[in-house]
Amino acid sequence: MITRPAVVVEGLVAVGTRSAGVRSDLCVRPIDRATEHGLDDTARIEVAAERLRHAERLLIMTGAGMSVDSGVPAYRAPGTTGWQNYGFLEAIGLKAEDLACPKAFEDDPATAWGFLEWKRRLMAANEPHAGYAALHALGRIARESFVQTANVDGYHLRAGWPAERLHEIHGSFWRLQCSGPCARRSWEDMRVPLSELDPKTMRLAEWPRCSECGRTARPHAILFADLDYVGNLPAEEARRRFHASGPDVAIIVGESGVIPTHTHDAATLRRSHGTFVIDLNPDPEARPARMADVHITLGAKEGLCRLLESVERLTR
Ligand SMILES: [Zn+2]
C-alpha cells in the first residue's frame, strides 16, 4: 500500500453536496483513499468538481498524457513501422536523442530536420481532443486561470487557449530560433509540409534558416543536451506572476512525474499558498498522484469531459 502524505477526510463527506466545501487544511492522517474509503473515480470527480466550480485562480498543468488521446502515437507504439517506433533510427544506429539535439541541427540538418518534419506532420494530421475544450472551459469558469504545459505540440493554442495565459515550458515545435543562436528571439512557423521528406533516408530537402545570420533554424524547444534554447521570458514571467498570486486550485493532467516541473510547482504552491491539487492520470503510483489532494485514475480525454460535466451539473 502506498503511504500518502495527507487526505481530506472531511471533504469526502461533502461529495455531491453544493454547500459543503472541501478544505485542504482539514488533512488528518495518511491513508490510502481508494482502499480505505472505497472511493471510485466518480466520487473523486465529484470532490474535484466541487473545488473547480468555486476556483478563483486555477492553475492548469499538462504533460505528455494529455497528447496521447489526440492520436499522436507513443514513440515506440507496438505494431507501427518506421519512425513511429523508431525502428528506422535503430536500423541506422541512431537514437532520438541523436537527432533532437543542437549538435544534429549543426552537423546534419537534413536528417535532424527530417525527424522534426515527421513529428510536425504527425501533430498537424491529428487534432486536440475534446478534453482540451473541456479543460479550457474549466479555466474560463475560474476568475483567473493559467496553463503551463510540458508539451511541444502547440495543441493548447490550436484549441483556442490565449497565448498570454500560457507557458509552454519546454517550448514548441511550431516556433523556431537560430541554431547559433545569434539573438534571443524566436518566430512562428506553422507551415506543413516544409519541403520533400525522402521516405527512405528520412532526410528533408529544404529547411528554414535564420533571417538574421543565415544559419540553420532549429525548434524553439528544449532539446537533448541543449544549452542554446533562448527561452520565452514574457511567458516565464507570466507564469511566475500567476504562481505568486496564489492559485487556490491546481489541476495536473497526464503527467508521469518523470520531468518534475509540474509536481515540484504543485507541491511548492500547496505548501506556500494551500493550493488544492487535483491530479488526473491513470497511474496511481506516479509522483503527482501521490502528492495530490485528490487523484482521478482516468485518461485525459475521458477524465476532463467527466469533470466538466460534473461541474456543470453542480452549477445548475
Ligand atoms: Zn541567426
The chain-level mean pLDDT equals: 84
- Percentage of residues assigned to helices: 25-40%
What's the number of structural domains? 2
How many beta-strand segments? Answer: 9
In terms of quaternary structure, the protein is single chain
Output the CATH homologous superfamily of the largest domain.
TPP-binding domain
Distinct compounds present: zinc ion
Could you give the distance between the termini? 38 Å
Q: Major sheet, described briefly? A: 6 strands, parallel
Which CATH architecture of the largest domain? 3-Layer(aba) Sandwich
Supply the number of helical segments.
14
Backbone structural class: alpha/beta
Q: What is the beta-strand fraction?
A: 5-15%
Principal-axis shape equals elongated
Query: What's the CATH class of the largest domain, please?
Result: Alpha Beta
Radius of gyration: 21 Å
Helix/strand order: HHHEHHHHHHEHEEEEHEHEHEH
Q: How do the strands line up in the largest sheet?
A: 3-2-1-7-8-9
What is the secondary structure topology, with strand pairs?
Layout: H1 9-13, H2 33-37, H3 41-53, E1 57-62, H4 65-68, H5 87-91, H6 96-99, H7 102-107, H8 109-125, H9 130-141, E2 144-149, H10 155-158, E3 166-168, E4 171-178, E5 186-188, E6 217-221, H11 233-244, E7 249-253, H12 261-273, E8 276-280, H13 287-291, E9 294-296, H14 300-315
Parallel strand pairs: 1-2, 1-7, 2-3, 7-8, 8-9
Antiparallel strand pairs: 4-5, 4-6
Helix pairs in contact: 3-14, 9-14
This protein binds zinc ion (ZN).
